[in-house]
Amino acid sequence: MVLARRRGRKVGVACIQIKSSRTYSRPTAPTARTRRPFRYDTWFNNFECPPQADFFCLVALYPALDAAQKRELGTWWAPQILLFSQAEMRRFLRGVRTVAGKPDRMFGFGFNDPSEAVQTRGDSARRHRDFSDHLLPRSLSRLRKFLSA
User: Fold this and answer.
1) Residue 107 has pLDDT above 90, yes or no
2) Rounded CA separation 85/8 (Å)
């Protein structure tokens, strides 16, 4: 995807590669032995970063919760979008490893609500690193700055 921003006569352009994941939800409460359980989990395939992409969006759709009715709406889905720059994505993907330390073919994030994103797969040390700062609402200023440069 190409995103352009016009400011007067100047146009800023960013090339964004979009990757998507299925979202897996837990229908029941996690067991006591489950570490850092989340209501939703995502799994992305590992990939090579093409040099043409300025940014990467990791998109997952999940069944949203209607606060007024307190029930899941099966016909309405909400997106969770993480934004990474080229350098951030390369650095992240280099570190995607299995517990044994070998390159992992997948990585994932878990969350209970759309304001959090915690790495749940692809970290050999299982640190459950918080990537909430990469959520799109918190990253828009970086994208705007890039388009204004």
Assistant:
1) yes
2) 25
